[in-house]
Design brief:
alpha/beta, about 400 residues, single chain, about 10% strand, 3 domains, Collagenase (Catalytic Domain), two-stranded parallel ribbon, elongated, Muramoyl-pentapeptide Carboxypeptidase, domain 1
């Protein structure tokens, strides 16, 4: 993006070297309908002319990102254009009450394909596998779609790979900085990371987080476009050295696009299955209040449940497992009266329902988000798959 800086102050009517590259860039992002194809010869003079079409493209770009719509290349606009971002086109939202968007025509995965497979070509870096596993779990926790890894790259619904420069799909990467990744609308399934970037699975200064960018690009694979909400994962730009999780706009978007099936209509095949508890006599034990859970106990329960769930290789908890969870909670909170396995089971059921109903509100109001036991973003990554897969065995 080095070509941007010499364009400072350029406006309609100017003839400035480098404007042809800006036209190419804005065309790729959906703001211009024509694109200049670079060749070995110098571009014709009119390609470097700041014409009316370019002025409108710059104005549309400024409007999308809530910049002053001057139509000129001022310092704020150029600084914004130089930020690392996704290579998918920006589409203005259809209304002012939401910021999420969809691809033109709203392509989506067929209703009968709710279990999507994903894969990487042989030799793909190991940390990408873990990052995408977490990202797919996060999307699955707020949508009707499920994801499963397969070794068969050619047969996978979603094909994830690292590419460099021109890699044959008509959307060449630009080296370090600029465009970080891109993905295609349903049901194409291709997701490409720029192999020339510095990638990590985590938060490291000067490096881009695979999970954050993967979460964004998977949103495109599912049918979401870019959001104008700067706090949303689907916002086009991303910085280095931090991690994002789904925001309310992301969740509203995927649920507007792929609504969650009402729980009473979901066939119970192991996912999200709640036990049918025996109905007690309405007057029996009326004098006994429900167990109260302190914030410390809630934190302990979530940690104990998560540890047990992962120790079972993401398997379902049975009766004896819940007793182990209760014992673990008691050991973490020795000064408080111990909870029974049934109380722990029922508490997790309530947490699960709250999570499925409104994940952002669940994050904001659940005790463990304010106690400092987990950073907020890590807490979502660690516990949301376990809560989503909560299953009560016999």
């Amino acid at each position: 993006m080095d070509f941007l800086q010499p364009l400072l102050g350029t406006q309609k009517g100017n003839l400035t070297e480098g404007l042809s590259k800006l036209k190419n860039h804005l065309s790729r992002l959906g703001y211009l309908t024509t694109i200049h194809k670079p060749s070995s010869s110098s571009p014709p003079p009119h390609d470097d002319l700041f014409d009316g079409a370019l002025q409108q493209a710059v104005t549309d770009y400024q409007s999308f990102f809530s910049l002053p719509p001057t139509g000129a290349l001022d310092a704020a606009t150029l600084a914004h254009m130089g930020k690392p971002r996704c290579g998918v086109r920006d589409v203005s939202p259809p209304n002012t009450t939401a910021h999420y968007t969809f691809f033109p025509g709203q392509p989506k995965w067929p209703a009968g394909r709710r279990n999507l497979t994903y894969s990487f070509p042989p030799g793909t870096r190991a940390d990408a596998h873990k990052a995408i596993l977490d990202a797919t779990n996060i999307w699955a926790s707020v949508s009707p779609l499920k994801f499963k890894y397969t070794k068969d790259y050619s047969a996978a619904d979603i094909k994830i790979s690292f590419q460099s420069r021109d890699h044959g799909d008509g959307s060449a990467f630009d080296g370090s900085g600029g465009i970080l990744a891109h993905a295609y609308a349903p049901t194409d399934g291709r997701l490409h990371f720029d192999g020339d970037e510095r990638w990590v699975n985590g938060v490291v200064g000067g490096a881009f987080d695979l999970q954050t960018v993967g979460l964004h690009e998977l949103g495109h694979v599912l049918g979401l476009g870019h959001s104008q909400d700067g706090g949303a994962v689907m916002f086009p730009q991303v910085g280095n050295g931090f991690r994002k999780v789904l925001g309310k706009d992301d969740i509203d978007g995927i649920r507007a696009f792929s609504p969650l099936i009402p729980p009473d209509l979901i066939p119970h095949h192991g996912y999200d299955h709640l036990p049918i508890l025996p109905r007690r006599h309405p007057h029996r034990h009326a004098s006994l209040p429900p167990p109260c859970w302190s914030p410390e106990e809630t934190v302990a329960l979530i940690d104990a449940y998560k540890d047990k769930w992962y120790s079972l290789h993401c398997g379902n908890l049975r009766g004896n497992h819940w007793q182990e969870v209760a014992d673990d909670v008691a050991s973490r909170c020795p000064a408080l009266p111990p909870k029974t396995s049934v109380q722990c089971c029922h508490k997790m059921e309530k947490l699960r329902k709250r999570w499925l109903k409104d994940p952002p509100r669940f994050i904001a109001t659940t005790a463990w988000s304010s106690l400092g036991s987990h950073p907020l973003s890590q807490a979502v990554v660690e516990i949301s798959p376990a809560i989503r897969m909560l299953n009560f065995g016999s």
